[in-house]
Amino acid sequence: MSSPVVPFRQFVLKVHSRCDLACDHCYVYEHADQSWLRRPKVMSPETVGAVVDRIREHAIRHRLDGVNVVLHGGEPLLAGPERLDAICAALRAGMPEGCDLDLRIHTNGVRLDERFLDVFARHRVTVGVSIDGDRAANDRHRRFAGGRSSYDQVVRAVGLLRDRPALFGGLLCTVDVANDPIRVYEALLALRPPRVDFLLPHATWDTPPSRPSPTAYADWLTAVHDRWEADGRPMGVRLFESLIRAAFGMSSLTEAIGLDASALVVVETDGTYEQVDSLKVAYEDAPATGYDVFAHSLDEVAGHPGVRARQTGIEGLCDTCRGCPVVEACGGGLYPHRHRSGNGFDNPSVYCADLFKLITHVRGRTAVTTHAMPVSVLDALAGGYGGAAEIAHLSRSQDSYRRMLVTRVAGRDGSRTTELLTRLDAGHREALDAVLAHPYVRAWAVACLRGEADRAYLGNVVAAAALRAGLPVKMPVLLVGGAAHLPTVGTLVDASGLPESLPVLVAEPGGPPRLDGAETVWHPARRLVSGDMSVLLEDGDPHRDCHEWPAAPRLDEDEAALWQVRFDEAWRLIQRDYPAYVPALRTALTTLTPLSRVVPDDLSSTARDAFGAVAAALPGDPATLALLILHEFQHVKLGAILDLLDLYDPSDRRLFYAPWRDDPRPLEGLLQGTYAHLAVTDFWRLRRHAVPDPGHRHFARWRAETARAVETLAGSGALTPLGERFVERMRQTMAGWLAEPVPGADLEAAARAAGEHAAAHPQA
């Protein structure tokens, strides 16, 4: 039986097949495949229309929520602004509802002017420009046919893009080891791009790259990497970011490395489909498929053997690659770079030694590699439990994430807030870490980087850390809803009606903070305590409203006292009856967030970007609160695991029946719910001995439904190998529980309830 089609998500349209430069390293004109000579210069309106129809058809068939289209060449600007305007308009109009179009163009920049930029602004087109560094580096290859330099025209084009930053996608730089790596890096950085792609020159074992030393390309790139790290990563670098993501088990950002299935197809000016066009370096017609947009669907192209060959992951690699310790980061390198006459692509990359050295160097220099998850940790967590050591592993990875996010928000602007953040990190790291560990600091930082939160809140974060360190404070903070919240420390409520701006917070060591020139009321942070267990009662943070249900406003003293009573009772119950969960909860449950009083008292929530926090409406009894905590902490754990590892194919958009929901769930939602219901099942497995009615019935219901969901996940065909291992460990846990005896009447009642739910909520 053939494997399912991997839908295409990236489409490269060769809108013009000629170029106004004569770069001697160009894979289109200077390598084995010369099929460009047989194609029309420009893509016709009829071909554009057929392309749009095919993409739309493909997006509808596979329920794609987004596609990426790159206008390419040759040099696409040779098509002219009017034709590009028509192409972009056709693409925008042709996308089906619910499918976002990420539209880009890659250009050498020499013809870029305001006419083109107006077209790109009208159609939201992001522009990438090719430039190889400073003047000497760029002119080594990127010249006009007569030998004239293109450098000044390209720099002028980049200047135009800087004036219109919404259009500026970044720079593409082909590595030449004859150029000085630091001079190239500094020249690119001076152009202030949002991102740079460093590209290895296309080569094969038959036509290897110029190589003055065995690892010349790795040495060149590691010099750039180390300077980039020392500078605080002032711009995105796709290659380095992909290697860092690989250390977390995350997907690559580039086809040049990693094991992700290729989801790219090229359409030439005559409408013929091609595989990745860098295959042109291998041999004549290497990218050809024999298909075209007029007669063939994209699903037919996706079934082409050459396309399938780039989607087989580790199984499609040669023996040398499969046995390599860095294969999951490298992925065998770019597919065309493996070619050798005689055995095709069954080889390591011609850059194998370079990739190995670069990957191991980056792993050694970045802190995130300490969070690559050992199999023993994964297995312990996948079984539904995990002790203090396993949860501490997740906590350390979250510490790194939060630091990275806050550092990106802080930037390098030299403000007093950023300077104080740096000083705290150097001299009072424990106090700073305590604030950064607050769950809603990450929620704010993520929202801030999305443009959905105010960067000025960084002042509140830094002020909180300074107060915890016992330092005097005088700095601007952000008012939200008339209050300045200081994470983990407390909330200053402005009673004098200052405008929602940036008042100055003032505090002396040992004294309460105040807002300069305002009448303020100080509410210190409150904690819930049971024995030696303590969590923050979070009812003041403005970023706590990131859960599925609305957060409660600040509690009055009676309400807070009731939370204290209920938490103490619930924690004592957990310690007594559910000791297997206690070490993990002690390690990482830091915060309880009250939900709105209008929310039913059996509802609770977690947020993916708020590790350590559980939100709940206050239940009427301690057992329900204990259940909510155990249930939601499963989501806390799994969210952190998914930050580190890819357990499933994120492109799978199918919906699945979930026995605990009224709506069908996407794959991640089903995985989350199933993992959480391991704890729900376990709760009733043990609770039924103290409360037989309804304990036996609940245990019977949830063990059957959770086991059913495990099998749905296992049979989905969308799990990664690690995901399959994870689900198998869940299945093993369930197998023992399924063997436990339950009274027949309770089994029948549970089966009736399950059947009624399934009948009332059929899968979409």
Automatic annotation (TrEMBL):
Keywords linked to the UniProt accession: Iron, Iron-sulfur, Metal-binding, S-adenosyl-L-methionine
Keyword S-adenosyl-L-methionine: yes
A molecular function (GO) term: oxidoreductase activity
PROSITE patterns membership: RADICAL_SAM
InterPro entries assigned to the protein according to its UniProt record, in alphabetical order: AKG_HExxH (IPR026337), Aldolase_TIM (IPR013785), rSAM (IPR007197), rSAM_sf (IPR058240), rSAM_SPASM_FxsB (IPR026335), Sulphatase_maturase_rSAM (IPR023867)
Record domain Radical SAM core: where: 5-251
Name the record gives this protein: FxsB family radical SAM/SPASM domain protein
